């Protein structure tokens, strides 16, 4: 085990051992969560693809890796410390999103006290690097980590100096300041990356019960990194620099082949921010999947404006190659709100056509909205539900706006309220519209028929989900229906 007394940079003489085992940690949001978040964490168990990429890179350097995912393993801090000791871990890396930052900081402090190993972090929440370093984290990876992690390991093995590593933040012992190094250029050819390392023992544990056409075992794959859009509530563009980098079809097919062969997967969720921006890429991809005669169903996220001129052809190609569900990020049905968050006011019109086209092609449609965007009123909320009732996607999900630190929205609205509606009111309408949507006989029947058609076993899961929902509702009615009394 590496001995890390104090700051790494100040102890060059002890940085000599080889790093043999690295553990990555994802901490759950659920311990403090109630209501719908708790349900979501129980019913959507997706792999940490970013960490699987890092594991693959390190495995190529003969380093053993582990992912301790608290959503799956449900460990306490004590248990985690015992895992680290038991597995003789030499380096620990946390995955940060803004929402788990505080809990990660607590864990870092305790780990530093109880186990003498270096702690680093990275992920979409890495712009909180000051706080992480204050908590005891030695190095924070800013942005894409596939190349940085290798140089960080080299640093701990004594071959690299921190100043030379691009794309990190660290505490500099000379200047006594937190420094950031030069930005690391984005990887130019994603085909050069190893395929994510997927632990066969964990594969059965992952599920996504809401996306019922996906069967188990299933995996997530990413065919591109980045998004050219600039929605003000999102941080993808600041992290991935609005550059859309796409893997070749051949490279993606190789990854699928490996997963089908080694893991016997039945479904794939392509978690790209925006899947298949290029119609030619999509055509080539769908034809290749068909040609290989793979037997899996798949899902992707589409922007409402994608394929607006080639939609019919695109959806039919997708269906023929096994696409069984598309998720659209609608965000709002109100043109003014869309403009305010840097979206195209023409989206609802295009989305209506897309849902209709996908539904008639036999692809399940899921649509997500955010309640509480700038300019939201009771009237604009009503537009969302009216739109859904007219367009009839199979699944709708209304989220409450959570302002992500460092997003454009967090900067513009750092002082005041984003809209005239309070959280309680938004939560009330959220529940009201969710219930009023799914309790419509036509919608409920459409959903039931689609589940029976695509994955009848999920009926049982949906009953379990209903039971959980009821349990949480009874245990903490305020968390789900808060605001109801005020509305009445
Ligand atoms: C798929 C996805 C999900 C899935 C699965 C989550 C998962 N971890 O796989 C689901 C639907 C469950 C989900 C949920 C949520 N998500 Co999400 N999700 C994504 C999405 C679209 C892709 C993640 C991914 O696989 N990326 C591809 C890999 C290659 O990149 P990566 O994960 O960032 O990892 C790279 C680097 O970050 C770095 N790295 C990562 N960790 C580490 C650690 C170390 C030590 C090092 C050195 C480097 C390093 O190296 C990796 C390889 O290059 C991203 C957007 C995006 N494009 O990244 C949002 C994103 C991560 N999600 C986000 C959010 C807000 C959420 C929710 C909180 C939403 C909500 N309100 O409920 C929940 C959180 C619930 C949870 N428990 O995770 C935000 C996070 C923003 C932030 N700054 O915190 C993102 C960035 C989208 C956005 N809106 O801006 N999400
Ligand atoms: S919300 Fe979606 S479309 Fe908008 S910037 Fe983020 S990833 Fe891109």
Would you give an account of this structure?
- It contains 20 helices and 17 strands.
- Helix 9 runs parallel beside helix 10, helix 10 (279-292) runs parallel beside helix 11 (311-320) and helix 11 (311-320) runs parallel beside helix 13 (347-361).
- The strands form 4 sheets. It has a 7-stranded mixed sheet with strand order 3-1-4-5-6-7-8, sandwiched between helices. A 6-stranded parallel sheet has the order 10-13-14-15-16-17. The chain has a two-stranded antiparallel sheet with strand order 2-9.
- It is globular and about 65 Å long.
- The protein has 488 residues and is α/β, with parallel strands linked by helices.
- It has 2 domains: 12-180, Cobalamin-binding domain (Rossmann fold, 3-Layer(aba) Sandwich); 198-475, Alpha-Beta Horseshoe (pyruvate-formate lyase- activating enzyme), CATH 3.80.30.20.
- The structure holds cobalamin and iron/sulfur cluster.
- Cobalamin (B12) is lined by residues 29, 41, 44, 46, 48-51, 53-54, 71, 93, 95, 97-99, 120-125, 141, 144-146, 148-149, 222, 234-236, 271, 273, 402, 404.
Concise description?
The chain is of the alpha/beta class. It has helices at about 35-45, 50-60, 70-75, 75-85, 100-115, 130-135, 150-155, 235-240, 250-265, 280-290, 310-320, 335-340, 345-360, 380-390, 410, 425-440, 440-455, 460-475, 475-480, 485, and strands at about 20-25, 45, 65-70, 90-95, 120, 140, 170, 175-180, 205-210, 220, 225, 245, 265-270, 295-300, 325-330, 365-370, 395-400.
